[in-house]
């Protein structure tokens, strides 16, 4: 056996034990690009992929939609009434609302008497993914998915670490939100916070330990369309468009004809992928999956999106996940293996959208969900990889790069951890060994 295989075998078999993780399972697959050699340790076994699931979704989205794909929001005005029809835009925010309001005013809209209608039929699926935990619905990572969305359907709560006690500030400022908290400061790197929300209300309760180094918390709103309309009303008023003191907001069908019709185009898919992979945004990943489904059918878009992912992987000759129920990996029902992830990543090295795909991945110690990692690759190397984290789960799949060239394609999947930090330590040790083996 080659010495490098023995070193990898030793790390895979003993790494978790040395960290005190007696019950953790490890799976790994590698491809050394120069030597054209493969390595696998439990590479065909099933693991919870966590957010490595987003690699399936984003790669197929690039293939089927293209990096220039945009989502369209339609707005119509007639006789003092306004209608909005959602097109699934995952990046619509306060700035986009201001742009819409400014455009309406430039078209001669100076007042609206109402009602203000919203239509949210673009996606027919439930606003949460299959298998998402019901008691996490107030958490920002569980934001609901709609055809009309605003600010990722999340509220951001921040605190000043210089204050003796945490005092939360709400963003966006216009959001009609109530929040109570019982937070205390901690000097740990990560927050240990629980966010809950009243059913069908934006009333939040937050408790736990807030990190002074990262005093930011997010909560999921209860309704994307209503939050959208709230933000749009704020934008209309700020642009000087007159509205009733209590605007009449209701659900209603978009008219086939109206006196004035405009549309707002989202940024391209390439920008969305920086959220999906770089920030590991579950909400945006689920929009991608449903958008893939919309290409196939107007009904059952979530299942149609899953079917599209499997069909595309089969066409590429890649074994699909053992079980895939959402686009983000938040569900505990998903199952994947390291070797198919490596096969996918190898294929994307030769895909026309290669640069967009790799650019969307966070860099170790530099950006996205890997920004806070302390270990840094040696000079000349970098790591572009997708992280994945659930309770007891740490996964990492991507590329060891030398300059712009891929040296190693890898997937490391760890399940059954007691401490997340132990999983990150093993990832560090794994990448250190890869750098050693390719030097």
Question: Explain this structure to me?
Answer:
It comes from Marinithermofilum abyssi. Keywords: Hydrolase. This is Peptidase M15. The protein is an alpha+beta fold and 439 residues long. It folds into 2 domains: 3-68 and 270-438, DD-peptidase/beta-lactamase superfamily (Beta-lactamase, 3-Layer(aba) Sandwich), CATH 3.40.710; 72-224, no CATH class. The protein is built from 10 helices and 16 strands. The protein has helices at residues 3-18, 53-64, 94-106, 224-238, 269-278, 282-296, 301-316, 338-348, 354-360, 420-438; strands spanning 25-32, 37-41, 72-78, 81-85, 116-119, 154-158, 169-171, 178-186, 192-197, 203-211, 216-220, 249-251, 260-265, 381-390, 393-402, 405-415. The strands form 4 sheets. Strands 2-1-16-15-14 form a 5-stranded antiparallel beta sheet, with helices on both faces. The chain has a 5-stranded mixed beta sheet with strand order 12-5-4-3-13, covered by helices on one side. A 3-stranded antiparallel beta sheet has the order 7-6-11, with no helix packed on it. Strand 9 and strand 10 form a beta hairpin. The two termini are 20 Å apart. The mean pLDDT is 95.
What secondary-structure arrangement, pairings included, does this model have?
Blueprint lengths: L2 H16 L6 E8 L4 E5 L11 H12 L7 E7 L2 E5 L8 H13 L9 E4 L34 E5 L10 E3 L6 E9 L5 E6 L5 E9 L4 E5 L3 H15 L10 E3 L8 E6 L3 H10 L3 H15 L4 H16 L21 H11 L5 H7 L20 E10 L2 E10 L2 E11 L4 H19 L1
Parallel strand pairs: 4-5, 5-12, 8-10
Antiparallel strand pairs: 1-2, 1-16, 3-4, 3-13, 6-7, 6-11, 9-10, 14-15, 15-16
Helix pairs in contact: 1-10, 2-5, 2-6, 2-7, 3-4, 5-6, 5-9, 6-7
